[in-house]
Design goal:
1123 residues; alpha/beta; 25 strands
Length: 1123
């Protein structure tokens, strides 16, 4: 039979089975793990199966977001943009809902809801509220319209955990208190039930407050009457206050005119003072003028005599300088005469010295000529120099040849040395693998970095060493063991720091967490104690030889002892086995898990034991964890694929280290090969250098001899020139030189006499001018004294005049100010009390006549007014109180009737609501008890009425609607009693069983067209998982009643695995959706060939039956253990 031979229902018949609001189609584009996918759920139970991480929960995320839900409902993220696939800019979710059916059986319009999430829209720091665009049947719409369509038309409530339970919210359900559980249950059954509950709460509040209304109104009425009596007394006080205010007004008018009269007298006195000062100022100005004229005359005479004095001083200075110049010239002539006479006397002495110099130079010349006999012939010296030059050239050529020959080798050695230095430097920099991993880890986790920096800065504060973060302290043996360790240990542990005493723990937590607000994980390892191994040495030897294990996980890395102990305490790394490919063979053939679960003979404990091991097969690593069920005692096994290490990967690629080490080794080998040739060549060059140095010494000696000969010739020539010069000086004529000296002395004496005579004449002229200038100076001083006295008199008179002017100016300003003040006071008085109107009244009334009396009377009246509190609205308040009294009296008559009406309304609503709620809870409790009994447990659902009863006064009923709730009571052990389900009392598996059975009890009562549950079977042992799955199948696949779509609705069960041979999987109302989005999936979904799959499956079954022929025991009933 082929796929075409199967009798399949038509599309119209399939559509008729969908309940209105069920999901017919989901299409995703660039959403989380999917590039593009489209799947078609069945109308009843949909089992979504696939390995972890392939995208099962993504389907529930898409349903939630596609129907208008927000990310917080999923418990995964706050921003919708985080659901866009990595490196994509936009994601789309399209959901097609089954349409409603009219009374004639025809379908209404089908609704297709599409949500587009754009990475570039919305605020960068926000929650992505503006990043989504919504469409209904291709038309753009708003989120509000989508929610109205989903909730009001199709009764879909995504935010209700009874109908939509995502993976990250499974734990929240069992954490509900009884009030929250009732609210969620009411919402899932019908919105009317929940709304009625809220109305009852509000009515109870209103009734509780209405009982006090009558008393409060009576109290208010009494208060208002007393208030009106007080207002009458205040009215009388206000009238008295008004009388005093009128008197104050009259006194203020009188005071204004009295102030004006006083200021007018002050203004008259100021005017008289101003006129007196003006007269005195004019008289002082007249006395100043004669003094100024006399001062100007004396100043002119003083200026004239001062000019004459300056001219005489200038001429006197000039004559003094000329006389001094003549005296200086005569002295210079006298000095020159003495010099010439001395030179005349030295001519004979010079002749005698020249004759002696001739004898001396001749003797020196003879000595130098004798020194020339010691030098060898010049021709021999030059021949020796030429020969030595040739020998030196030959040695240099030999050295250059050796250097040229060895240059290539040296260049290769230098290159090898450079490569070696560079590779060694790079290798030294990357050798510190721990430091590199620490820097990378701290850069990835800022909070860990802040905590680490605090510890590094303040290590002296702690009693003992602080270790961590743990990820930086561990050194795996290789990348494979790094992957084992990283996948086994939790992320929180890698971020942890380890302390060795409680005092350090308290200090670190207080300083980092409490004071600085930095999140930090701290583990305490008080002492490191060796623990016995999980397996004995004998069993470990068997595991190594027969099953392919290498050892324990704690043997695959190195770390400080406190770090290793922390990993043992938290993750039991000393009990995890590590193996290779042989472990896979042992799993398939030798029942390895059963062997590890069996306790050794020396272990007296009963039952099986848990185990964990890791191995690698065909470059893929797996982790097997087996645990013992608390109920059945059977072994349940989970298998995880291990990913490559990220946190513990080496700081640098090992291949780089190996490449650098090879580079250093190759360079050392090349240097060792070339070094002997270089050493031999350098020895030859040193020998040639030594030979060249010997030749060069001889050459330098010959060159020195030649140089000395040249110096000797120059010395001889110079001495001959000196000898000839001495002979020439000794033969000069001295008579002519003496005659020239006598003539020069005569001429100098005549010039000296003339200069001294001219100096005497100038001295006489200076003495004459000195007498004249002394008389002029005396006259100038006399005039200066007279001018100073006149200036003092003028300044004194001007100061007196200026003082009078200032006094006049101040008096004038004072008068003008008083005049302005008087004008303002007059205007103010006329404004307050016009004289024509108030003059007679102010004079006739019994008022004080002076300003002091008026002020005293005004203060007295003001004190009277201030003693009475002003209340201008007292009459209006008095009338308003009368109206309020009448109104309250009317309300008092109506209150009793309103309270009775509300009480009757509450009792009517309560009767219907309580009856419906009791009926529902009773039905759910019956089903829940039956379902729990199927799994060997007991359960019950109770309605809690919040402690309702009569009040202490016996008049009103106390309902406490806000405290009503639903309690789930369970019992998992025979000896125990029923207890309320809670996260503190029951395990995760127990809560999962209770939760799914409660939801199954609600199944047929819910209003939502579909329900979704994600991985509710996780944590269950094999027996309970089979029973739970059987119950889900039975409840979700019940036969339809009046029509194909008249059933309990659509159900989505998400699970990473299914046990083999589950009951009910052959039911035609079950749709299995396989999710496998790994690298080996079909690139095109159309490549799936149903016929080929059926043929392969038949062939596999046939081969299996042939292999099992002859095995009489457990041929058909053999079951595989869970792995």
């Amino acid at each position: 039979m082929t796929a075409e031979d199967i009798d399949r229902p038509s599309q119209e018949e399939r559509d008729s089975h969908y309940k209105a609001g069920s999901i017919k189609r989901v299409k995703l584009t660039n959403f989380l793990t999917y590039d593009a996918v489209e799947f078609f759920p069945g109308p009843r139970l949909n089992v979504v199966v696939g390995p972890n991480g392939t995208g099962k929960s993504t389907i529930l995320c898409a349903i939630c977001l596609g129907l208008g839900g927000q990310p917080p409902l999923l418990g995964r993220a706050d921003d919708a943009r985080l659901f866009i696939k990595h490196e994509k800019e936009q994601a789309q979710i399209e959901i097609e809902l089954a349409p409603l059916r009219k009374e004639n059986g025809r379908c209404e319009a089908t609704h297709v809801i599409r949500r587009v999430i754009d990475r570039d829209r919305g605020s960068e720091r926000g929650k992505g509220a503006g990043a989504s665009t919504y469409f209904i049947n291709g038309h753009k719409t708003t989120l509000k319209n989508v929610k109205e369509l989903v909730s009001e038309k199709y009764h879909i409530h995504i935010d209700n955990l009874c109908t939509f339970l995502p993976q990250d919210k499974v734990g929240n359900f069992s954490g509900f208190d009884k009030q929250a559980l009732l609210a969620e249950t009411e919402k899932s059954l019908s919105g009317h039930l929940y709304n009625t509950h809220q109305d009852l709460i509000e009515l109870e509040k209103a009734l509780q407050s209405s009982g006090t209304d009558v008393a409060s109104i009576e109290d208010e009425l009494s208060k208002l009457k007393k208030e009106n009596e007080r207002l009458e007394r205040e009215k009388e006080l206000m009238e008295e206050r008004q009388l005093y205010m009128d008197k104050m007004d009259l006194l203020k008018k009188k005071r204004a005119w009295l102030v004006f009269d006083a200021k007018r007298e002050e203004a008259k006195a100021a005017k008289e003072r101003r006129e007196e000062l003006k007269k005195q100022k004019k008289e002082a100005e007249k006395c100043v003028q004669p003094l100024k004229k006399r001062q100007e005359k004396v100043a002119g005479e003083h200026s004239l005599i001062r000019t004459q004095h300056k001219a005489l001083e200038t001429k006197l200075k000039k004559d003094k300088k000329a006389a001094e110049d003549c005296r200086s010239k005569g002295e210079r002539y006298s000095d020159d005469i003495e010099i010439e006479v001395s030179d005349y006397d030295a001519i004979d002495a010079e002749q005698r010295r020249a004759e002696k110099a001739v004898d001396k130079e001749r003797t020196r010349l003879e000595q130098i000529e004798a020194e020339g006999n010691d030098f060898p012939p010049l021709e021999e010296v030059e021949a020796t120099i030429g020969q030595l030059k040739e020998e030196m050239r030959q040695v240099k050529n030999q050295i250059a040849g050796e250097k040229r020959r060895i240059a290539g080798v040296v260049e290769r050695m230098n290159g090898a040395n450079d490569q070696r230095k560079e590779a060694k430097g790079r290798l030294e920099r990357i050798q510190d693998d721990k430091k590199l991993r620490l820097e990378r880890y701290l850069g990835k986790f800022p909070a860990v970095k802040q905590a680490y920096e605090f510890i590094e800065t303040n290590r002296k504060m702690f009693r003992k060493p602080i270790w961590g973060p743990i990820a930086a302290e561990v050194q795996p043996q290789n990348p494979q063991t790094a992957s084992y360790l990283e996948n086994h240990v939790s992320q929180a542990t890698w971020k942890s720091f380890v302390v060795e005493c409680k005092e350090d723990y308290d200090l670190l937590y207080r300083e980092v967490r409490q004071k600085r607000g930095i999140p930090i994980n701290i583990q305490t390892v008080n002492r490191v104690e060796p623990k016995p191994r999980m397996y004995s040495d004998e069993r470990m030897e068997v595991l190594k030889q027969e099953h392919g294990f290498f050892g324990y996980l704690d043997e695959t890395f190195t770390a400080p002892d406190p770090i290793t102990q922390a990993l043992i305490n938290r993750h039991n790394v000393d009990k995890v086995l590590v193996g290779g490919e042989a472990v896979q063979n042992s799993l398939e053939r030798k029942d390895l898990i059963e062997y590890l679960s069996t306790r050794e003979p020396h272990d007296r404990r009963s039952g099986k034991q848990s185990s964990c091991f890791i191995y690698t097969c065909r470059d893929v690593s797996f982790k097997y964890s087996s645990s013992v069920s608390r109920y059945s005692g059977l072994i349940g096994t989970t298998v995880d694929n291990l990913t490559a290490a990220k946190l513990l990967r080496p700081g640098t690629d090992p291949r780089v280290k190996e490449e650098l080490a090879n580079t250093i080794t190759n360079a050392d080998e090349l240097l060792a090969e070339l070094q002997p040739d270089v050493d031999a060549t350098q020895a030859r060059i040193m020998e040639l250098n030594s030979q060249g140095q010997t030749i060069n010494g001889t050459f330098k000696e010959a060159k020195r001899t030649k140089t000395d000969w040249n110096h000797y010739q120059m010395k001889l020539s110079n001495q001959k020139d000196k000898y000839e010069e001495a002979k020439e000086n000794a033969s000069k004529d001295n008579a002519a030189e003496k005659a020239r000296k006598v003539a020069k002395v005569k001429k100098l004496m005549e010039a000296n006499i003339a200069a001294m005579e001219h100096a005497s004449t100038l001295h006489n002229e200076v003495m004459k001018n000195t007498h004249i200038i002394t008389g002029v100076k005396i006259k100038e001083d006399s005039l200066s004294d007279s001018l100073r006295k006149l200036s003092d008199q003028v300044n004194e008179k001007e100061a007196e005049t200026e003082d009078l002017a200032n006094q006049y100016k101040a008096a004038d300003a004072d008068y003008n100010q008083k005049k302005d003040t008087l004008r303002k006071l007059l205007k103010e008085a006329e404004t307050i009390a016009p004289k024509a109107e108030w003059c007679e009244r102010l004079d006739q009334d019994d008022l004080p006549e002076n300003l002091e009396g008026v002020d005293e009377a005004l203060d007295e009246a003001e004190n009277k007014v201030n003693s009475i509190t002003d209340n201008p609205h007292v009459m209006r308040q008095y009338e308003e109180r009368k109206k309020e009294i009448a109104k309250l009296q009317e309300q008092l008559d109506e209150s009793a009737g309103e309270k009775d009406m509300k009480k009757k309304q509450l009792e009517t609503k309560l009767e219907r609501w309580e009856a419906a709620l009791i009926n529902i809870v009773q039905k759910v409790s019956e089903k829940f008890s039956a379902y729990m009994k199927e799994v060997g447990c007991a359960g019950e659902v109770r309605l809690y009425n919040g402690g309702a009863g009569e009040n202490d006064d016996g008049e009103n009923m106390r309902y406490n609607f806000k405290d009503w709730g639903v309690e789930i009571l369970v019992k998992f052990r025979e000896a125990s009693s029923l207890q309320v389900l809670s996260a503190q009392t029951h395990s995760g598996g127990e809560r999962s069983v209770s939760t799914i059975m409660y939801l199954m009890g609600l199944q047929n009562l819910m209003a939502s067209p579909f329900r979704c549950v994600d991985e509710i079977n996780q944590g269950l042992d094999e027996r309970n998982e089979r029973l739970v799955f059987k119950r889900i199948v039975q409840n979700s696949t019940l036969a339809a009643e009046s029509s194909n779509s008249d059933h309990c609705g659509q159900y989505f069960l998400i699970t990473p695995k299914l046990l083999p041979n589950l009951d009910g999987m052959e039911n035609e109302n079950i749709t299995v959706l396989f999710v496998f989005s790994g690298p080996h999936s079909f690139s095109n979904p159309l490549d799936w060939d149903v016929d080929k799959f059926i043929e392969d499956k038949k062939r596999f079954v046939t081969q299996d039956e042939e292999e099992n022929v002859g095995d009489s025991s457990n041929v058909r009933g053999k079951k595989r253990r869970s792995k």
